[in-house]
Known about the structure:
Blueprint: H1 3-16, H2 18-49, H3 56-71, H4 76-86, H5 98-104, H6 107-126, H7 130-139, H8 142-149, H9 153-164, H10 168-189, H11 200-238
Helix pairs in contact: 1-10, 1-11, 2-3, 2-4, 2-11, 3-6, 4-6, 4-8, 4-11, 6-7, 6-8, 7-10, 8-9, 10-11
Amino acid sequence: xxxxxxxxxxxxxxxxxxxxxLLLGALVFIPLGFLSALTDRISEIHAESTSDVFDLGTxxxxxxxxxxxxxxxxxxxxxxxxxxxxxxxxERSQPPPLRYVARRLSYGRLIAVxxxxxxxxxxxxxxxxxxxxxxxxxxxxxxxxxxxxxxGVRAAFxxxxxxxxxxxxxxxxxxxxxxxxxxxxxxxxxxLPSLVIHEPLLRDWVGESLSNILLSxxxxxxxxxxxxxxxxxxxxxRA
Length: 239
């Protein structure tokens, strides 16, 4: 499995399903955008009000950096699972109605996978970066696996590790650049609402939601396509 092939297929599938992916993203990221914006505002207010005697401002800054690392993937893994549900029949299949997706999503399992993966990556990054990168590569497909194969949380992580074995570099070469590029573009998109919205919480909410809705489909589609491809190849080897 080559990274270039996955990029081409991701762009093709994202373009074909653009409207659908944006609507699905709105359902996921508008609520999450509010929670993220609210958390950011609380952190900023807390940092501004802390006393310099105990240097709590520095502590708040460090906590904010760790929180940012933990929440970079938060929502994207859940969304990737939702996209997986819509692509069970392949990348060229007709996506099901959004009402069907809302009824069939494994909310609890996807939220658990999302949180555990985000925390694991954040802790790994604190431990000299490399463990965090490896953790991300090994378990990045757990979200799509929940919906594509109907597995539980623990089984989804184990299955992701099994599928990625031997393809770690491909997974990294696909998902890491997409994640980094999304972060860079998101920084620009986050500034757009400030041109017309002056209330801080609302401005941050619109910026967070907009950036995730527009950029997350690429990560999600790539993760789903790699899951489908690696699963197919593992099945062929067993046969």
